[in-house]
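Let us practice reading a record.
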Amino acid sequence: MRSDFQHSSNQGSALIAVFWMIAVMGMVVLAGAKALQADTQSTRELRGRTFAKRLAQMGLEVARHPAIQMDDSLLHYSSPEGGGYDVKLTTEEARLNINTLLASGDKVLLPRLFASWGLKPPQSSALLDALRDWIDEDDKAGLNGAEKRDYQKAGFEGMPFNKPFREVEEMLLVRGMDRINVMRPDWREWFTVMGDGRVDVNEARAELIALIANVPMEHVTPLLTLRAGRDGMKNTRDDHRLNSPVQVAQLLGVYQPQTVELLTRWIQFAGPIKRLESTGYYGDIRRRLVLIVQNQKAIWRGELPLHHGS
């Protein structure tokens, strides 16, 4: 009797052990399947990023040709495999030159811009002082700025560089720019370190034009309508070129002499530095490469993050 009970008990224990082994094996298989799936997704993403970058590079090489016009069909390409590129031709001067503004002691445009992005006056003042301290040649901090000692306390050696920004990305090293990076991830779209400081009003975004003239966005609509030409589409051959500060002021509905004087100082109508932006895509993966050209010579090349509206 006891032998039968022991035999049944052993069978039950063996059965439980088998169930445990099946469960463990199931978990191992499941984990392996998930790892394989993750590896497949990772491989797929890597391939997509590689193809998207190659397609963006292809777009840049096409756009560099001197015969290419802004509405040329060659600036857009789509393949049956789900990849392609779109290239936009503009000018580098369609942005604010951060070095020129800081060197000139600007107390209008940058405060106005930072306020529109949501910075409170004390935050804006501190950031402006820190930006000025970054490019000036001395080690004397502005009222709310940051010089060598301030960066050392934060664990950063060799900062600030005490010379003009070499590229826009360098601005992110300045104390306080981390807040801007969170509030406005597209902040790079607003700045350049090239050109003479005047903004190309024929290429600048509507928000920047409104900022310069200090008018509501709706006041920019007549200017945009005229600039787009009869077909109502920007970057086509019937685009209308603005050509005088007085014309710009009239379109914006501002007639004060001081505003016209500021526009005369801050805007131009044909920036000589060309900017080629090529967005390559493969499936849902997108990468944007930028090439800046002056007199047919490449002076800067790099990749920039994509943001909504870019």
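A brief commentary: Residues 118-183 form one domain.
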